[in-house]
Amino acid sequence: MPRTLLRIDASARRSGSVSRDLTDRIVARFGPDTSVVTRDLADGLPLIDEAWVTANFTPADPRTPEQRAALALSDTLVAELQAADTVVIGVPIYNFGVPAALKAWVDLVARAGVTFRYSATGPVGLLTGKRAILVVASGGTAAGSELDFATGFLRHVLGFIGITEVDIVTADRLMLDPEATLASAAAQVEALAVAA
Predict the structure, then answer these.
(1) Which residues constitute the signal peptide according to the record (predicted)?
(2) Annotated binding site, which residues?
(3) pLDDT tens-digit profile of 26-50?
(4) What is the count of structural domains for the chain?
């Protein structure tokens, strides 16, 4: 059965990016029957504003044409997530956190009643049955350390919208020992279980 992989690149660098290179390798490991949809955040995403928030909290039927237009990109990004079986996100750590464009993507896809809902026992993610693979690269921040505000944030956000199966490939602290770090990351990529 054909599967769909959503690839999200968050690095501002189009060439020489470790996260993009490792994401290339992961995507290449999936079988030829996998359909790959690419969302390159280096192209930029708008930040949510008052018009977006107002449109988002207006029920779908009475939304004005302007409100539907304000949500159009968000609807597209959500549809990409809904259609994907696997989501691969290239995540460089910038100043201890995720790039601004990736935070903008999170804001555009985390929508009550669409990707999660509130219940009597708390929020419930609606995008269940999917897998995410995070490819984390950093110059000096150790992945998973108290200074890493990127991986924990993304794991939480993905779980919040229902994606609880999250694998992480790390190429962290590249400035200290790039050769050993890249070798370790390549081994992590090869060890990933992927759909044939």
Answers:
(1) none
(2) 11, 17-19
(3) 999 998 899 999 999 999 999 999 9
(4) 1
